[in-house]
Amino acid sequence: MNATPTAPRHRAYGATIGRIVPFVPALIPMAILVGIVVELLISSKLTNFGWGFWGSIWDPPSQWGIAVFIAGSFLTALPALFFAMAIGLGIAIASTTYLPGWITRWLDPFVDLLAGIPSIVYGIWGYLLVAPFFGSVINPALYAHIGFIPGFGGLAPRADGLGLPVGVFILTLMALPITTLLIRDALRSVPRDLWEAGLGLGATRWETVRHVAIPYGSRGILSAAFLGFGRAFGETVAIAMVLNVVASYPTNVYGSTGTMAAEMFLSLDSAFGNTQWLAALSEMALVLLAISLAVNIIGRRLVARIVTYEVPGL
Amino acid sequence: MASAVNHLRAETAEELLFDRSFRTRWRLGFDKAIGWVLPLLFLVAIIPILDLVYYIASQALPTFTWTVLTSTNPYDPDALGVPIETTAAIMLFAIALAVLLGLFGGVATAEFLPERAAGWVRMAANMLVGTPSVVLGYFGYFLFVITFGWGLSFIAGSVTLAFFMTPYIFRISDLAYSSIPRPIREAAYGSGARPYQYVLRVGAPIAFPQILNGVFLALAIGVGETAPIVLTTTQSVIFPPTIYSPVTFLTGTIWENFSQPAGSPSLSLAFQAALLLMVVVVALNILVRVISARYQKRLEGLYQ
Description:
The structure holds two protein chains of two kinds.
Chain A: H1 9-20, H2 23-26, H3 28-44, E1 58-59, E2 63-64, H4 67-98, H5 101-116, H6 119-145, H7 164-188, H8 192-200, H9 205-216, H10 218-234, H11 237-242, H12 260-271, H13 275-301
Antiparallel strand pairs in A: 1-2
Helix pairs in contact in A: 3-13, 4-7, 4-10, 5-7, 6-7, 7-10, 8-9, 10-13, 12-13
Chain B: H1 2-9, H2 13-16, H3 22-40, H4 42-60, H5 66-70, H6 81-111, H7 115-130, H8 133-147, H9 154-178, H10 182-190, H11 195-223, H12 227-232, H13 250-257, H14 265-301
């Protein structure tokens, strides 16, 4: 009796199919991502706006310079990132080093909750409550008392408070959960031995954090900065509601400007039927997507694995 | 000699403080002070969230009656019945499609894809999560509304929203199957299970709670999303009779009404919608955390 050592042919064929078919659904995320880029390229009709596209004058029927919106996106996202990183670092250090576990168990969920609030709810709160507060209290006070610092003086702030300060404030709140959680994860990933070595050598808790934990977790902290920036950079609705979006550079810190995301969101309706306008908006979407993805990739490559997943945008 | 004995009995940093130099006292004092200052930063998170919840609730509750939630009369401007029904229908459709796309993709990535390819796919999913929602809205607008000719409609909005939620479901399914303890996997395959048998009979019971968790998380994220849905739908006052009809989504209701004058019924409707949205999202988030904590215990139990 000669037992055939190999499987029958049809089995081998079936196995090949069986090996390939399961791969197909795995390609869905890539397909969506490629689909987004291709669709935006198609809808832009590869219109060439020339160097004027990188200029500063955005005047829809004729001028298509998106530099003003790129600048606006950075002008809102970078200060928000600065505040979110500073506060997030403080909260993360307090929660990992100074506070006992039973207190952080009660306090940490508040930060997580910030991430869960829908951006339109931030928007309506910011538009109706925070902006008037900035307009009647904070902006006039800054204008009166530190107006001599360049940028804080000049054109008087708007009475309704819409503008950069409230935009940055809202974005800080939206980026805060991401920076806090990632910094917390970074500090928690510091081996216990290192903490104890630091404390055992006579360093105080602060010195241990400052000279041992932060350097050890520096990549995680840097990744928090990139991902927090990505969140603030792409934020749309809340900014569209509180920023008083205009296509010009702000003249001082109370001024208004426009971000790419907010301008895209607000002007799609008006652009309907105007091929040039739609093409310009599509290309703006591609620029926004490119910057967001670059920031995202860098942020994720910095750490091996992101532990927290229960947060939108992470 | 005495100091050595003191050292053994020392219980606080002060007692260890043999040299009372300014520098040492400053170091210890700074450490103590910053231990009081840093926790105060929690207030930066806690005060806004309490203020926000209080403000929305205080604006919404005075005009709230149960008929706001239940009335579906299209001529009643002060009713959320239609937006609630429509939102539920859109979310149901979108989550079904997102689970269909994301679940199979995630399981395939965790179980069948070689490690290198899986890395690329995971990066694509992470990039999708990092994509600004307005860009996804543009994608939905140009592809579904214009190219496919679906118009600003129920189907365009819900498919766009499904694409928005897919990467979340995808990642959680991938994570759930990847984190099944290796011995269990080896035991299943070692006793002759086919891949589909492993996925359905061994993996599914272990991964199910976490995937369910991901579905709730995606619902919480999707229901609060504004840009994709507002760009791909248009307002209506009735429940969509066909899938190509205009719809009204809760976040869209807020967006349409938030700049109405103070005290107007439209603005109070926006606040009702915001409160409802917030309650739903927070409830889903709490649910996610509870399931997550229980699941963690269960997963740890698997190793014993």
